[in-house]
Amino acid sequence: MRVLGLSSGTSHDAIDVALVEFELDGDVLVGRLRHSGHVPYPRQLRAQILAALPPNATDLGAVCRLDTGIGQAFADAAWSATREAGPVDVVCSHGQTLYHWTADGQVHGTLQLGQPAWIAERLGVPVVSDVRAADVAAGGQGAPLVSLLDLLLLRGLPGPVGALNLGGIANLTVVADPPVAFDVGPANALLDAACLRLTGRPFDRDGRLAASGLVHPGLLAALMAEPYYARRPPKTTGKELFHDAYLTSYLADFPDVAPQDLMSTLATLTATTVVDAVREHGIATLAVSGGGAENPELMKRIAKRLPGVEVLRSDAYKVPSDAKEAIAFALIGWFTAHGLPGTIPACTGAVGGRVLGRISPPADHPLVLPEPLEKAPTSVRFEN
Fold it and tell me: How many CB atoms lie under 10 A from the CB of residue 370?
């Protein structure tokens, strides 16, 4: 089965695309990545997304326009991928998270926009979407869903093994018995917000500005006092907490921090929260993915604080670090199409595993899915 995974994360900059060909070999699911890429959002659409995010106010008209615009952008990205790499059997579209409703450590709801009907109409195949809601309804955090891929990919390795994704938010899966997964805190969220504020650029390329500065001890201590870090997993967070206004509230007490020192302090904040989580769980090998893996200054600060831990990229397991999340949603699409739960209750906190998402049928012919499987694969292996 050929499944196209589509995702856009908390950086809200592009649509990640991964076309994976899956074949079941006994208890092992073999995946072959046939295509991956990143399709930037149109500039106006990205501006509309950013304008609708907390703490900004929005209205139902803006939400409707975004649902349509994001859905059409995802449909365009899916169409381009299939024109280049051939047809697919199923699409799994995560869409774009606009709001993740948390209170007192409990997730009450989650909203991903990007109307899947546009994809189903364009490609003429079933589309799995709205993949977080079932886990939330079962009492889970709705995240990190990538833990399904992490556990199937890394289970059996000497460990504990950790899988770290550095997107707008950092999330960590601990491959142990029992497994643990949670959002650590801001990876690039505050770094990107500060860089945009200071330079007008969306991110600090290669961490150059951070590398040129010094850590401000007072500001770092204030940021590290954030109550979220002390909460026990499972836990999730997002741009609802870590946004530009959040940063502004701290800078009011430190008005004289130099730009390069602010960036250096925020890079160390990300590194320290990650390192604390890795140490707490006794991780011996850390496989890193996401946009932050491309930041040599951030990676240096993490690795330097983890002597004795092997820090490598997920590419070592034939999962490209810049395509991992889209690959994870392709995997979830395969599980849903075969009637299999795509969540790990120990990782999300749900009362049980749930088949994820709703399925939009193809536009011009009946919905046909594979026969449901009684037993899920015990591992996944990627080949060329």
Answer: 12
Query: Which run of H or of E encompasses 365?
Result: none
pLDDT at 256: 93
CA distance 72 to 123: 12
Where are the extended beta strands (E) located within the chain? 2-8, 14-25, 28-40, 90-103, 106-113, 127-129, 161-166, 169-175, 180-186, 285-289, 310-313, 358-360, 379-383
Distance CA 75, CA 197 (A): 32
Q: What are the extents of the domains in the chain? A: 2-142+322-383, 149-317
Question: Could you read off the pLDDT of 199-257 as tens digits, one per residue?
Answer: 999 999 999 999 999 999 999 999 999 999 999 999 999 989 999 999 999 999 999 99
Q: Give the model confidence (pLDDT) of 62-90 as tens digits.
A: 999 999 999 999 999 999 999 999 999 99
Please provide the DSSP assignment of 59-120 as one string.
-HHHHHHHHHHHHHHHHHHHHHHHHHH---SEEEEEEEEEEEEEETTEEEEEEEE--THHHH
Q: What is the mean pLDDT of residues 112-134?
A: 98
Q: Domain 149-317: state its class.
A: alpha beta
Q: What is the reported pLDDT for 332?
A: 98
Question: Would you call 217 helix, strand, or coil by DSSP?
Answer: helix
C-alpha distances out from residue 377 to 62, 152, 233, 380, Å: 42, 8, 26, 7
Sign for the CA dihedral angle at 207, 328, 234, 189 comes to positive
Decide: pTM greater than 0.85. yes
Architecture of domain 2-142+322-383: 2-Layer Sandwich (3.30)
Sign of CA dihedral 56, 62, 67, 72: negative
